[in-house]
Predict the structure.
Amino acid sequence: MAKGRPQLESGKRTKKIDVRFTEDEYSLISSLEKTLGISKTELLRKRVLNNAGATVINAKDLIISLDNIFSEMGRVGNNINQLAKHANTLRLQGALSPLIAEQFDTHFQKYLQLQQQLEISLRKVIRLVGKS
């Protein structure tokens, strides 16, 4: 007759990860352990694996990306303003070329695409921050 706990057929935990914490971090984990009534191992497992799908935001990369997008939007906006001023001057003179309108449309479409890209990126960030 076998004594003790039956061996697991599947789901056996064989991998180990070592982690070091500061005194403050360890104190926080210990207090959560006492408050929640679960072991440190189970606490960390639940906290990590329950949020496994969440993406960690690299703030430096995010700021660089946003800075590049804003810079490009500024350049495109400047081109749009210059073309609009030029088109208005030509319109008043009765000499508005279809080429000017075409260039304006091209720059404005690029501006709208950048604005849409920025909006999508910011929505992703807002969703990610809202989950944490």
Remarks:
- The radius of gyration is 29 Å.
- The mean pLDDT is 81.
- The longest helix spans residues 59-93.
- The chain has four helices and no strands.
